[in-house]
Design goal:
By secondary structure, the chain is α+β, with helices and mostly antiparallel strands. It has ten helices and eleven strands. Bound molecules: adenosine-5'-diphosphate (ADP) and magnesium ion (MG). Adenosine-5'-diphosphate binds next to helix 1, strand 2 and strand 3.
Length: about 325
Amino acid sequence: MGEFDLIARYFLRPCHDAALGVGDDCALLGSLAEGMQWAVSTDMLVAGRHFLPHVDPQALGHKALAVNLSDLAAMGARPRALTLALALPDLDESWLAGFAEGLWALANQHGCELIGGDTTRGPLNICITVFGEVPAQLALRRSTAKAGDDVWVSGTLGDAAWALAQLQASRPVSADARARLERPTPRIELGLRLRTLAHACMDVSDGLAGDLRHILKASQLGATVNLDALPLSDELLALPLEEQWKLALSGGDDYELLLTAPVHHRSALAALAEELNTPLTRIGSMSAEQGLRWLSAGQAVTLSLRGYDHFSP
Ligand code: ADP
Ligand code: MG
């Protein structure tokens, strides 16, 4: 099997949305409805850095797309299309079949069409670009939080980092924690519904402590976060407090949505969480006073946690 047979077998499916999909020099995207904009995002996953080399290929296919869809969710965008650039060390059909299965299952679930890509030999590397659509005025940005907003986060934090720490120490990992690491759920439906409820939004991929600072900087505001309100799984709650905070705030790989919303949307957000069966937890508030403050039991807590940074010394 050569490069073109590989593409045809695993990555060529009929397109219904795009005007032209896999097979020519470019794909052709159809036009957007009046008032809509494209939202575009790229995320690369490198073996040994973003995933363990022997991870289940089906989970990897899922995760490679999930982390990209999470960026669309964070902007309130609806997925339309993706491209896939793959570097493969060799042509391993059982690996490819698993990877493609994980990728297609999630793509189909969200009506996101694979319209093109690139395939080359090299150290395992997966780079996906997603294309979504969002009404021009409703894209959820990092820069539009307001002083007095509540700060909310979806799901639970720190489970993926906990699973990774356990795997790296060759200790047993629960199925739930492993699923949070290997099969994150992009919060697409939540993102769509937040368009008219949130002021600012982003996805938590590098740890809440670092990611919230991105919103503060972009919006030129500060925040106070109540550590006692952090949404944590029972597994994390069984750990020492400092360990809980470290995993939840600087662990990374959560792919939950972090948002700010006006106080008068509290009940609407609670109802939305119920409807979507996705927890939404109010963890703090935005302030005109700059800086990020942590509270526990009503007292200020000093934490020197940072988000994950590939190039920090
Ligand atoms: P070109 O040489 O013109 O850049 P390629 O030979 O790289 O085109 O790819 C042939 C076709 O297959 C193109 O339409 C390209 O978008 C598509 N393609 C290549 N690799 C992938 C992949 N991994 N997934 C989806 N489509 C792919
Ligand atoms: Mg060409």
